[in-house]
Amino acid sequence: MNDQIENEQINIVDLKAALLSNAASTYAYNKINNILLMQILAKVENRDMEEIRNNVERYIAEFADEYVKMNAPTH
């Protein structure tokens, strides 16, 4: 029984590590995509990159907050 509990705990640790790795990769890809999008918008719209960056960061913060609120566990 102890071996089974240990194996389950190891599996949980492995799963958490995999989830963290996936989250880190997703975060990195999203950051790269945002930079590329901002560069394209700056060039196409002939706008200041800093202005676009501020708008994108504001939207990311708003959408992230909205997502957290929608997915928060209810007690």
Salient structural properties:
75 residues; mainly alpha; 2 helices; elongated
Parts with pLDDT < 50 across at least 5 consecutive residues? none
Averaged pLDDT:
84
Structural class: mainly alpha
Q: In which range does the helix fraction lie?
A: over 70%
The total strand number stands at 0
The string of secondary-structure elements, in order, is HH
Strand content: under 5%
Number of helices, where a helix is a run of at least 4 consecutive DSSP H or I residues: 2
* Major sheet characteristics: none
Descriptive account of the structure:
The longest helix is centred in the first third of the chain and has 43 residues, at 2-44. The two termini are 32 Å apart. 1% of the residues are buried. The protein is elongated. The chain is built from 2 helices and no strands. By secondary structure, it is an all-alpha fold. The model has no long low-confidence stretch (mean pLDDT 84). Helices cover 88% and strands 0% of the residues. Helix 1 (2-44) packs antiparallel against helix 2.
